[in-house]
Amino acid sequence: MVNANNPSHIKLIIIGVFVGLFGIYIKQAIYHSMVVDLLGWAITFIGAAISIIGVMRILKD
Questions:
Q1: Is residue 47 part of a domain?
Q2: Where are the transmembrane segments (predicted)?
Q3: How far apart are CA 58 and CA 19, in angstroms?
Q4: Which range marks the domain in which residue 47 is found?
């Protein structure tokens, strides 16, 4: 049985947060570009999904 305090769960959440912040940074850094804005939104949602997966792994244990 895996412990809920396993460092791999915390690392996954932190990686997801950093990916999400990178997506927000991309959206804010370059204005008036639809492609970059959509790319920023996609990266932000991917980061959020990674973080949610990490939380679900903790809840599962």
A1: yes
A2: 12-32, 38-59
A3: 20
A4: 7-60
Is-contact 27 37, C-beta < 8 A? Answer: yes
Token output for 17:
């947060």
Q: Which tens digits make up the pLDDT trace of 13-25?
A: 999 999 999 999 9
Paired tokens of 46: 């991917």
On whether the CB atoms of residues 9 and 51 are closer than 8 A, the answer is no
Structure tokens at 31: 């204005």
Q: Alpha helices, DSSP H only, in the chain?
A: 7-29, 34-60
pTM: 0.84
Evaluate whether residue 19 is within a structural domain.
yes
Mean pLDDT of the chain: 89
